[in-house]
Amino acid sequence: MVLDQSTAVYQRILKNCTHDGSNPMAGPIQTSLEKTGPDHLSSLKCLSDSSGDSIIYTLLPPVFKGLNTTFKEFLILTGQKAIHSKYDGIIELKVGARNSCFLLMEQDQEISFPDEDPKLRYLNTLTSGLGDVLYTNQHADINIVVDQRIFPCHKVILAAMSPYFDAMFTHDMRESRDGIVTLHDIDADIFDNILHFMYTGKDVVCEENAEKMFRAASLMQIPCLQESCAAFLLSQISHDNSIGIWKIAKAHNCKKLSDKAWQTILENFQMVSASEDFASLDLDELLCIIQDDSLISPSEEFVCDVALDWVAAEESRKDCLCQLIPALRLPLVSSDYLFHMIDSHTEVQGDPACRKVIQEAMKYHACFSKRQNFTSSRCVRRLHSKMDDVLVVIGGLLSTTPRYQTTKEVLCYSFQQRRWYYLPSLPYDPGYEFATCVHNNSLYVSGGWLKLTGMAEYKSHKNEWKVCETLTNGRCGHVMVAVSNSIFVLGGRDGRAPAMTNIEEFNINTEKWSMAGDLLLGVRSTSACAIGERIFIFGGITETDKDTMSVQCFDARHHNTSIIGDLPFTCRLTRTVSLDSSVYVMAPDGRMLEFCDPSLSIISHTQSKRRSRCDSSSSVDSMADPPSPTSTTVTLGNVLCRIPNFSQHHFEVIQHKGEILLVGGKTPDNTILKNIMAINIDSKPEVVVEDILEMPSARWCFGCVKTSIKRDYLNNQIP
Fold first, then answer.
1. Compositional bias (Low complexity) spans (predicted)?
2. Where are the domains of the chain?
């Protein structure tokens, strides 16, 4: 078998070599080649050379073709070539084989160098010459003094590489005239390395000097050295040095390095928080870290502990505590931890801002029925939390023509992961016009055309549905509101009464229903919300099939009802959302009404008789003598805005981080929607509305709530 002359390319790596920059290393080179398979050379190792230096060649591509795969051949190549130190990159090796019974050798070959690129040859020559003048001090025209060491240099080289020196030598500064420049805040060894880089371009950055080199390169405005240092530091970032590198990168406006260091801090917070660098953070830096949504922490209690330990580390930091408290997500810590922290740091109770934050956290822990109304960022879970804040879409209609296509599907959108997931489906098909609400992260569904008396609970801590005790009076087109430890269903229709008045109460602790009272005005297709212990019902369709503008108020503790005033317009199919203590009513024509708590000036023109809990009379009986809706003349609320080109109904609304999200619905031309719009009511000078995402499928007449679910349960992603 004949081996044709082939060409192989190798990477030359010098180990333990020393030279003065000009003397070449030369001598015979004996190399072993070991062949283990077709078209593949497993190793190429230099055995020796005349100088005793170790030279290792590593093969890049396979080169030998046609070798018999049955045999392993050991080949000896010899050659002699002067190898100059400047050739530290790719070389070319032409090889042939000899002394083999299986291979024929035509001629000996030698190591040779490829033709250099002219530009590269020029640069090599230039930097070699510049290195010589640096080493010999020839033609030096300026002395740089660093730590009492004198470095003879050349103005033109320094000015060409550094705008810092260029400005110094251009503007006739005294240092330039005297021929001596003294540099402060830099080590002599670091400056020596910088000179080598500026004159020869050699890599001078290592683990021991990288941070100092980066600072000095930034000070002297040497961009290419800054980039070299940044690239090295980027490869060396760990939890031990991430804070130091982040500070350096931030100080010198190196975004890529700063972003990587910042990411390392957030992803390794538990270890980073135990480092010495963390203890030396200033207040603003600490605030940046603990407020970041991307922070990965075992718990919010751990974040609080770290912040409090930082304060305790130095006496002077005690005054910082009141600035740190508003940055902590106290609503998401356990109630035991919260009250222990308050007792242990009584000084925060005297600060108005801290007191407000603590009150917010206490309300969050106490008000299970209103947790989803909190707009503060302190109530929002981090991106890597064990729990996700989710928008849940329940059932609904997928078609617009009878027989309507219903679904038991339950979908949720994770705000942290920005993905849609399936949750367990409803245990039965409620049809449409059912009602939904949330209490302590559990979801409740009641009524609906296909299951008028149905009631089901999704237990978020178990990721499962439970069928509850049935309603006393079945209904659809009603509303459901949670107050304290009870859930109330109000109004609706049952196929007999076009607009019901009776109110039922579901006790969450006993899981039993009871009659709670009556509306003064029977309504369906209305909306409602709770402020404190009062439930407000806005407009709706009356038993005469007319729209009303009346606002009714049901006191959940005293079980009585009053009509407290009128909306600015009659309405049906409105949707209501609470942002903290403010309430917004959204009409199908795009008008948005802001409704404020009228508890300080309740105008109660008519009050219903309190109903016994055991009274189970029907809604038809209770409608015997309803009050006239015109008996009130007080207009409540004001129209905040009107969404342009908006006309849709059977949509839903929730709030997230202070924005109102308007979900799905149907237009007058029977187009079913799947878009989700965000309404920013705080934007100036006008309310901003924009589409932000879409549901996986269009639907209308569905349920929609916001809650929090364990991330472990979000494992069935929707493609």
1. 615-625
2. 6-115, 117-236, 297-366, 387-713
Strand ranges for 131-277 from DSSP E: 142-146, 149-153, 180-183
Say if residue 564's pLDDT is above 80: yes
Quick one: which of 242, 248, 232, 249 has its CA closest to 268? 242
DSSP readout, 653-696? EEEETTEEEEEEEE-TT--EEEEEEEEETT-SSS-EEEEEEE-S
Which residues is 595 bridged to in the sheet?
583
**How far from chain centre, in Å, is Cα 706?**
19
pTM metric for this prediction: 0.76
Look up the CATH architecture of domain 117-236.
Answer: 2-Layer Sandwich (3.30)
Q: Which two tokens stand for residue 714?
A: 């979000």
CA distance 419 to 388: 11
Look at the block and give the residue holding tokens 């075992």. Answer: 298
Strand order in the sheet with 455-459: 435-439, 442-446, 455-459, 464-467
Report the topology of domain 387-713.
Neuraminidase (2.120.10)
Position 387 pLDDT exceeds 60: yes
Amino acid making up residue 300:
E
pLDDT at 34 over 70: no
Cβ(539)–Cβ(574) under 8 Å?
A: yes
Helices (H) and strands (E) in the chain, counts: 17, 34
pLDDT (mean) for 615-640: 53
